[in-house]
Design a protein that fits this description.
Elements (H helix, E strand, L loop, with lengths): L4 H16 L3 H8 L3 E10 L5 E12 L5 E8 L4 H18 L4 E8 L7 H15 L8 E5 L5 H14 L25 H17 L7 E5 L3 H12 L3 E7 L2 E4 L6 H11 L9 E3 L1 H5 L5 E4 L18 E4 L7 H9 L3 E3 L1 H4 L2 H15 L5 H26 L3 H19 L4
Parallel strand pairs: 3-4, 3-5, 6-7, 6-10, 10-11, 11-12
Antiparallel strand pairs: 1-2, 2-4, 7-8, 8-9
Helix pairs in contact: 1-2, 1-3, 1-14, 3-14, 4-5, 6-7, 6-12, 6-13, 12-13, 13-14
Bound molecules: glutamic acid.
The site of glutamic acid has 12 residues, from strand 3 and helix 12.
């Protein structure tokens, strides 16, 4: 059955609100995004035809600061999905203590069907269409599923033109270094995932050296997480993409797999591996399961068969609330998306700060600040989970909502 991500996000909020005995007025504010824009943008195709693409930008809450969050290009994007993703961004920024609210954008498109020139025209048309509601002090987009630094550069350039020739690097993050990007941003989400996995593993008594991991998704987040885990001595035994992947029990070298994909365009057929489906990967016997693909992967249908001891949500919303309950009851620890994958937005925050002051940091400075922020956030969440005897997801929501509630009250909204 199709699960609506907005219903999932609202249910997670409702459960945390109950535990916190949250003021119902604040709860009502947080249940819906404050602003959602739908755009339909015409784009000239290479063959002379025109296609109209549907896109959205949702801004969930700006009590703590401007909206922040990525833009995804995917054929399955819906308004409710984008709303849910913007809610998760608010809570993610809250867990990390970043001075942002949540935003998220999406365009209904399969970018694989576009030429590079069409992709550029679409990226420019979309950011121009949402330009009235974005800006360094309003809402700052970034990469997400199927978008990257080149797309961010086009968007920054187009926004600067729309605004009358001002150079506005702080309007988007995840840009190439030469136009105001931050060192360490590309791999930041994966680096953060690996940090949280390390901290959670410590608490669970799992030694990373020699532990086994399966990774669903081999995009920006999955591939970087696999690399950092492998560097820590974890054996990556399986990797899948949307159309399936590979298993290799004596371990996959993620660098070699990236090289192989560069040459062949696929991960399937990697020397020494056998094919595996996404469904099989999720229930593989391993210590750590990294979910770095899309929403609704672990559901009530397969949660009973998961065999990992620790699940890390590199993607947003990969586990449904019913599945959460089953996993908790089975003693499987789940490190939630709003904590695990927050490394991306954290270094986006560093990028924005560097843009605003026009002074750029070294990679060491970025990475050590990220390390500190992630560990602090993990500790706050872990402490909350111990104090209230709740899951890490519930604890992360509680840490975040407590901060949001304070800001909402301070601003006098309730
Ligand atoms: N799209 C990423 C996320 O879901 C990054 C957002 C950002 O850097 O603003 O967290």
């Amino acid at each position: 059955m199709e699960v609506n991500p907005l219903a999932v996000a609202q249910q997670q909020l409702d459960m945390a609100a109950e535990k916190l005995q949250l003021d119902p007025k604040i709860h009502a504010i947080l249940r819906e995004p404050m602003r959602v824009m739908e755009v339909n943008v015409p784009v000239k195709m290479d063959d002379g035809t025109v296609r109209v693409f549907k896109g959205y930008r949702s801004q969930h809450n700006d009590a703590i600061g401007p909206a922040k969050g990525g833009i995804r290009f995917h054929p399955d994007v819906t308004m409710d999905e984008v709303k849910a993703l913007s809610m998760w961004m608010t809570f993610k920024c809250g867990v990390l203590g970043l001075p942002y609210g949540g935003g998220k954008g999406g365009v209904v498109v399969d970018p694989k069907t576009l030429s590079q020139a069409e992709l550029e025209r679409l990226s420019r048309a979309y950011i121009a269409a949402i330009a009235p509601i974005v800006g360094p002090e309003k809402d700052i987009p970034a990469p997400d599923v199927n978008t990257n630094s080149q797309i961010m550069a086009w968007m920054m350039d187009e926004f600067s033109k729309v605004k009358g020739g001002v150079t506005s690097p702080g309007v988007v993050t995840g840009k190439p270094i030469i136009v105001g990007g931050s060192l360490g941003r590309t791999e930041a989400t994966g680096r953060g995932c690996a940090i949280i996995i390390r901290e959670a593993a410590k608490r669970l008594g799992i030694k990373l050296q020699g532990a086994t991991a399966a990774v669903q998704g081999f995009g920006n987040v999955g591939s970087a997480t696999a690399q950092f885990l492998a560097q820590a001595g974890v054996k990556i035994i399986a990797v899948t993409k949307s159309d399936g992947g590979i298993v290799k029990h004596d371990g996959i070298d993620p660098d070699a797999l990236l090289e192989f994909r560069k040459k062949t365009g696929n991960i399937k057929g990697f020397p020494g591996s056998s094919p595996i489906s996404n469904a099989e990967l999720l229930t593989l016997d391993c210590d750590i399961l990294v979910l770095a693909a899309l929403e609704n992967q672990i559901t009530k249908e397969n949660a009973g068969q998961v065999r990992a001891r620790l699940i890390a949500e590199g993607a947003n919303g990969p586990t449904t609330p019913e599945a959460d309950a089953i996993l908790a009851q089975r003693g499987i620890t789940l490190a939630p998306d709003i904590l695990v994958n927050a490394g991306g937005v954290t270094v986006s925050y560093f990028e924005w700060v560097q843009n605003l002051m026009n002074y750029y940091w070294t990679a060491e400075e970025v990475n050590s600040r990220l390390e500190r922020k992630m560990v602090e956030a993990f500790e706050a969440v872990y402490e909350m989970s111990q104090k209230y005897q709740v899951t890490l997801r519930m604890a992360a929501y509680m840490v975040s909502i407590a901060r949001l509630a304070e800001a909402i009250k301070a601003r006098g909204w309730v």
